[in-house]
Amino acid sequence: MIPARWKNRLKNWAWAEDMAFVPTIVPWQPEYQMQRLQVTRKLLETEEEAAFPLGGATPRYLYLASNHSNKWGHRRGYRIQILSFAGKPLPQESPIEKAFTWGRYHLAVTQRKEEEPSSSSIFNQNDPWTPTVNFTDFISNETIAGEDLVAWVTAGFLHIPHAEDIPNTVTAGNSVGFFLRPYNFFDEDPSFHSADSIYFREGQDATACEVNPLACLSQTATCAPEIPAFSHGGFAYRDN
Protein backbone atom coordinates (compact mmCIF):
# COMPACT_ATOMS: atom_id res chain seq x y z
CA MET A 1 0.00 0.00 0.00
CA ILE A 2 1.17 3.51 -0.78
CA PRO A 3 0.15 6.65 1.11
CA ALA A 4 -0.36 9.90 -0.77
CA ARG A 5 -0.70 13.45 0.50
CA TRP A 6 -2.68 16.21 -1.18
CA LYS A 7 -2.90 19.68 0.33
CA ASN A 8 -5.00 22.70 -0.52
CA ARG A 9 -3.66 26.02 0.69
CA LEU A 10 -7.06 27.68 1.08
CA LYS A 11 -9.80 27.73 3.66
CA ASN A 12 -11.82 24.60 2.97
CA TRP A 13 -14.62 22.47 4.30
CA ALA A 14 -14.84 18.67 3.98
CA TRP A 15 -18.21 17.34 2.88
CA ALA A 16 -19.45 13.76 2.60
CA GLU A 17 -22.34 12.88 0.32
CA ASP A 18 -24.00 9.54 -0.28
CA MET A 19 -27.36 7.89 -0.90
CA ALA A 20 -29.60 6.33 1.72
CA PHE A 21 -32.94 4.53 1.66
CA VAL A 22 -35.60 6.49 3.54
CA PRO A 23 -38.97 4.93 4.53
CA THR A 24 -41.74 6.85 2.80
CA ILE A 25 -45.51 6.54 2.99
CA VAL A 26 -47.08 5.64 -0.36
CA PRO A 27 -49.26 8.69 -1.13
CA TRP A 28 -52.07 6.73 -2.80
CA GLN A 29 -51.95 3.90 -0.24
CA PRO A 30 -51.06 5.36 3.19
CA GLU A 31 -51.15 1.92 4.82
CA TYR A 32 -48.01 0.93 2.85
CA GLN A 33 -44.44 2.11 2.95
CA MET A 34 -41.74 2.16 0.31
CA GLN A 35 -38.00 2.83 0.41
CA ARG A 36 -36.96 5.92 -1.51
CA LEU A 37 -33.37 6.89 -2.29
CA GLN A 38 -32.37 10.24 -0.87
CA VAL A 39 -29.12 12.20 -1.01
CA THR A 40 -27.43 12.57 2.37
CA ARG A 41 -25.01 15.41 2.99
CA LYS A 42 -22.81 15.83 6.05
CA LEU A 43 -20.22 18.43 6.99
CA LEU A 44 -17.17 16.76 8.53
CA GLU A 45 -16.15 19.13 11.30
CA THR A 46 -13.31 17.32 13.09
CA GLU A 47 -10.32 15.23 12.12
CA GLU A 48 -11.84 12.20 13.82
CA GLU A 49 -15.01 12.51 11.72
CA ALA A 50 -12.91 12.70 8.55
CA ALA A 51 -10.76 9.63 9.28
CA PHE A 52 -12.08 6.51 7.54
CA PRO A 53 -10.50 3.17 8.56
CA LEU A 54 -9.42 0.78 5.85
CA GLY A 55 -12.16 -1.75 5.19
CA GLY A 56 -14.84 0.42 6.78
CA ALA A 57 -17.59 2.46 5.19
CA THR A 58 -16.43 5.46 3.19
CA PRO A 59 -18.78 8.03 1.66
CA ARG A 60 -18.98 7.63 -2.10
CA TYR A 61 -18.63 11.36 -2.55
CA LEU A 62 -16.11 13.18 -0.38
CA TYR A 63 -15.00 16.59 -1.51
CA LEU A 64 -13.20 19.66 -0.21
CA ALA A 65 -15.17 22.85 -0.85
CA SER A 66 -13.98 26.44 -0.73
CA ASN A 67 -15.93 29.51 0.30
CA HIS A 68 -16.29 30.57 -3.35
CA SER A 69 -19.40 29.61 -5.32
CA ASN A 70 -20.12 28.93 -8.96
CA LYS A 71 -22.95 30.70 -10.78
CA TRP A 72 -25.42 28.11 -9.51
CA GLY A 73 -24.66 28.96 -5.88
CA HIS A 74 -22.75 25.74 -5.13
CA ARG A 75 -19.38 25.90 -3.42
CA ARG A 76 -16.47 25.25 -5.74
CA GLY A 77 -14.42 22.22 -4.74
CA TYR A 78 -12.69 19.02 -5.67
CA ARG A 79 -13.89 15.49 -5.11
CA ILE A 80 -11.43 12.81 -3.98
CA GLN A 81 -12.25 9.59 -5.83
CA ILE A 82 -10.13 6.62 -4.76
CA LEU A 83 -9.39 3.52 -6.80
CA SER A 84 -8.02 0.89 -4.43
CA PHE A 85 -8.60 -2.69 -3.39
CA ALA A 86 -6.04 -3.04 -0.63
CA GLY A 87 -6.24 -5.94 1.82
CA LYS A 88 -6.17 -5.84 5.58
CA PRO A 89 -3.62 -3.53 7.21
CA LEU A 90 -0.93 -4.71 9.60
CA PRO A 91 -2.62 -5.97 12.83
CA GLN A 92 -2.56 -3.30 15.53
CA GLU A 93 -1.37 -5.83 18.09
CA SER A 94 1.88 -6.16 16.12
CA PRO A 95 4.79 -4.49 17.98
CA ILE A 96 5.91 -2.76 14.76
CA GLU A 97 2.49 -1.55 13.65
CA LYS A 98 3.09 1.92 15.11
CA ALA A 99 5.53 2.57 12.28
CA PHE A 100 2.82 2.00 9.66
CA THR A 101 -0.29 3.50 11.22
CA TRP A 102 -1.09 5.39 8.01
CA GLY A 103 -2.16 1.98 6.69
CA ARG A 104 -5.10 1.95 9.08
CA TYR A 105 -6.92 4.57 7.04
CA HIS A 106 -8.43 4.56 3.59
CA LEU A 107 -8.71 8.34 3.75
CA ALA A 108 -8.11 10.98 6.40
CA VAL A 109 -8.45 14.76 6.30
CA THR A 110 -6.48 16.82 8.81
CA GLN A 111 -5.42 20.37 9.44
CA ARG A 112 -2.32 21.32 7.49
CA LYS A 113 0.66 21.78 9.79
CA GLU A 114 4.30 22.44 8.96
CA GLU A 115 5.38 19.90 11.59
CA GLU A 116 3.36 17.17 9.86
CA PRO A 117 4.94 17.04 6.37
CA SER A 118 4.52 13.30 5.76
CA SER A 119 2.65 10.31 7.15
CA SER A 120 5.85 8.32 7.72
CA SER A 121 9.62 8.65 7.82
CA ILE A 122 12.55 6.77 6.30
CA PHE A 123 13.80 6.34 9.85
CA ASN A 124 10.70 4.32 10.81
CA GLN A 125 12.25 1.27 9.17
CA ASN A 126 15.30 1.52 11.41
CA ASP A 127 13.31 1.45 14.64
CA PRO A 128 9.68 0.48 13.97
CA TRP A 129 9.11 -0.24 17.67
CA THR A 130 9.55 3.46 18.56
CA PRO A 131 8.93 5.17 15.20
CA THR A 132 9.96 8.72 14.42
CA VAL A 133 6.52 9.47 12.95
CA ASN A 134 3.28 7.93 14.16
CA PHE A 135 0.47 8.97 11.84
CA THR A 136 -2.27 8.44 14.42
CA ASP A 137 -0.85 11.43 16.32
CA PHE A 138 -2.02 13.62 13.42
CA ILE A 139 -5.67 12.73 14.04
CA SER A 140 -7.19 14.46 17.04
CA ASN A 141 -10.42 16.26 17.76
CA GLU A 142 -9.23 19.46 16.08
CA THR A 143 -11.64 21.26 13.79
CA ILE A 144 -11.21 21.04 10.02
CA ALA A 145 -14.01 23.45 9.14
CA GLY A 146 -12.68 26.48 7.29
CA GLU A 147 -9.04 25.44 7.71
CA ASP A 148 -6.10 24.69 5.44
CA LEU A 149 -6.60 20.97 4.89
CA VAL A 150 -4.55 17.95 3.91
CA ALA A 151 -6.12 14.78 2.50
CA TRP A 152 -4.17 11.58 3.24
CA VAL A 153 -5.06 8.80 0.80
CA THR A 154 -3.96 5.16 1.01
CA ALA A 155 -4.18 3.06 -2.15
CA GLY A 156 -2.96 -0.47 -2.71
CA PHE A 157 -3.69 -3.93 -4.07
CA LEU A 158 -2.50 -7.50 -3.80
CA HIS A 159 -0.77 -9.05 -6.80
CA ILE A 160 0.18 -12.73 -6.77
CA PRO A 161 2.46 -13.58 -9.71
CA HIS A 162 0.93 -16.03 -12.19
CA ALA A 163 1.66 -17.44 -15.64
CA GLU A 164 0.10 -14.49 -17.49
CA ASP A 165 2.70 -12.17 -15.96
CA ILE A 166 5.31 -13.65 -18.33
CA PRO A 167 6.98 -11.81 -20.02
CA ASN A 168 5.30 -8.73 -18.53
CA THR A 169 2.42 -7.89 -16.23
CA VAL A 170 -0.54 -6.20 -17.90
CA THR A 171 -1.67 -2.78 -16.74
CA ALA A 172 -5.43 -3.30 -17.09
CA GLY A 173 -6.97 -4.17 -13.75
CA ASN A 174 -3.70 -3.60 -11.86
CA SER A 175 -3.80 0.16 -11.44
CA VAL A 176 -4.61 2.00 -8.22
CA GLY A 177 -4.59 5.62 -7.18
CA PHE A 178 -7.02 8.47 -6.82
CA PHE A 179 -8.56 11.25 -8.87
CA LEU A 180 -9.07 14.88 -7.96
CA ARG A 181 -12.25 15.70 -9.86
CA PRO A 182 -13.79 19.18 -10.09
CA TYR A 183 -16.97 19.20 -8.04
CA ASN A 184 -19.10 22.27 -8.76
CA PHE A 185 -15.81 24.01 -9.52
CA PHE A 186 -16.99 25.05 -12.99
CA ASP A 187 -20.32 26.45 -14.10
CA GLU A 188 -20.66 23.66 -16.67
CA ASP A 189 -18.67 20.89 -18.34
CA PRO A 190 -15.46 22.66 -19.49
CA SER A 191 -14.93 20.13 -22.27
CA PHE A 192 -18.04 21.55 -23.94
CA HIS A 193 -15.84 24.35 -25.28
CA SER A 194 -13.14 22.00 -26.60
CA ALA A 195 -12.87 21.53 -30.34
CA ASP A 196 -13.47 18.05 -31.76
CA SER A 197 -10.46 15.98 -32.75
CA ILE A 198 -9.48 16.11 -36.39
CA TYR A 199 -7.44 13.41 -38.14
CA PHE A 200 -5.90 13.93 -41.54
CA ARG A 201 -2.99 12.42 -43.41
CA GLU A 202 -0.02 13.97 -45.12
CA GLY A 203 -0.98 15.39 -48.48
CA GLN A 204 -4.58 16.16 -47.50
CA ASP A 205 -5.83 19.73 -47.50
CA ALA A 206 -6.59 20.65 -43.88
CA THR A 207 -8.71 23.57 -45.07
CA ALA A 208 -11.09 21.36 -47.06
CA CYS A 209 -14.49 20.83 -45.46
CA GLU A 210 -14.55 17.09 -46.24
CA VAL A 211 -11.20 16.66 -44.46
CA ASN A 212 -11.59 19.13 -41.61
CA PRO A 213 -15.20 19.96 -40.64
CA LEU A 214 -13.97 22.74 -38.35
CA ALA A 215 -12.67 24.60 -41.40
CA CYS A 216 -16.28 25.19 -42.41
CA LEU A 217 -17.63 25.79 -38.93
CA SER A 218 -18.60 29.36 -39.73
CA GLN A 219 -20.79 28.15 -42.59
CA THR A 220 -22.38 25.47 -40.42
CA ALA A 221 -23.07 27.92 -37.61
CA THR A 222 -25.19 30.07 -39.91
CA CYS A 223 -27.73 27.24 -39.99
CA ALA A 224 -27.94 26.98 -36.20
CA PRO A 225 -31.19 28.28 -34.70
CA GLU A 226 -31.16 31.33 -32.46
CA ILE A 227 -32.39 30.41 -28.99
CA PRO A 228 -34.17 33.26 -27.21
CA ALA A 229 -33.01 34.26 -23.77
CA PHE A 230 -34.82 32.61 -20.87
CA SER A 231 -34.59 32.35 -17.10
CA HIS A 232 -35.28 29.58 -14.63
CA GLY A 233 -34.93 29.43 -10.88
CA GLY A 234 -33.46 32.89 -10.73
CA PHE A 235 -30.78 32.20 -13.34
CA ALA A 236 -30.79 33.92 -16.72
CA TYR A 237 -29.43 32.31 -19.89
CA ARG A 238 -28.63 33.88 -23.22
CA ASP A 239 -27.26 32.04 -26.25
CA ASN A 240 -24.17 33.84 -27.48
Characterization of this structure:
The chain is mainly beta and 240 residues long. Helix content is 2%, strand content 38%. The chain is built from 1 helix and 10 strands; from the N terminus they run E-E-E-E-E-E-E-E-H-E-E. The chain has one helix spanning 217-221, and strands at residues 2-26, 29-44, 51-53, 61-69, 75-83, 105-111, 147-155, 177-183, 230-232, 235-237. The strands form 2 sheets. Strands 1, 2, 3, 4, 5, 6, 7 and 8 form an 8-stranded antiparallel beta sheet that branches. The chain has a two-stranded antiparallel sheet with strand order 9-10. A hairpin with a 2-residue loop joins strand 1 (2-26) and strand 2. The protein is extended and about 75 Å long.
Give the overall pLDDT as a whole number: 86
Helix content: under 10%
> What spatial form do the alpha-carbon principal axes imply?
extended
DSSP summary: helix tally: 1
User: Uncertain spans, ≥5 residues at pLDDT below 50?
Assistant: none
Count of β-strands? 10
| Structural class by sheet pairing and helices | mainly beta
Beta-strand residue fraction: 35-45%
Report how far apart the termini are: 50 Å
What attributes does this structure have?
two-stranded antiparallel sheet, eight-stranded antiparallel beta sheet, mainly beta, 1 helix, 240 residues, extended
